[in-house]
């Protein structure tokens, strides 16, 4: 279960998700379309990108810790 304090959207209270947008790590709410970059700057994504993200959620992606 996801219940980390401070990881919920302040507007809709939905759990924030972490995405990889063109190589940049963004954390935000797909419902409100508000995304925060690692530097703390907020931005919005195009609706096309949001649709793509929703598609990604259905696909099971394997997360590797190679680094
Ligand atoms: Zn929200």
Notes on the protein architecture:
The chain has 67 residues and is an alpha+beta fold. It has one domain (1-56). It has one helix at 47-58; strands at residues 17-21, 24-29, 34-37, 42-43. A 4-stranded antiparallel sheet has the order 1-2-3-4, with no helix packed on it. A hairpin with a 2-residue loop joins strand 1 and strand 2. It starts with 16 loop residues before the first strand and ends in a 9-residue tail after the last helix. The model has no long low-confidence stretch (mean pLDDT 80). It binds zinc ion. Zinc ion (ZN) binds at residues 9, 11-12, 14, 29, 31-32. Zinc ion (ZN) is lined by residues 9, 11-12, 14, 29, 31-32.
Strand order of the largest sheet: 1-2-3-4
Instruction: Give the C-alpha Rg.
Output: 12 Å
- Approximately how much helix is present in the residues? 10-25%
Order of helices and strands: EEEEH
* Proportion of beta-strand residues: 25-35%
| Shape summary | globular
Report on the biggest sheet: 4 strands, antiparallel
Find the count of extended strands (DSSP E, 2+ residues): 4
How much is the average pLDDT?
80
Question: What's the tally of helices?
Answer: 1
N- and C-termini, Cα separation:
27 Å
Bound molecules: zinc ion
Number of domains as seen in the coordinates: 1
Q: Give start-end ranges of low-pLDDT stretches.
A: none
């Amino acid at each position: 279960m996801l219940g980390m304090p401070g990881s919920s959207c302040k507007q809709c209270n939905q759990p924030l998700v972490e995405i990889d947008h063109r190589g940049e790590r963004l954390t935000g709410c797909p419902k409100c379309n508000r995304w925060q970059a690692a530097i703390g700057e907020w931005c919005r994504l195009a609706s096309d990108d949001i649709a793509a993200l929703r598609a990604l959620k259905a696909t099971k992606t394997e997360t590797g810790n190679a680094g």
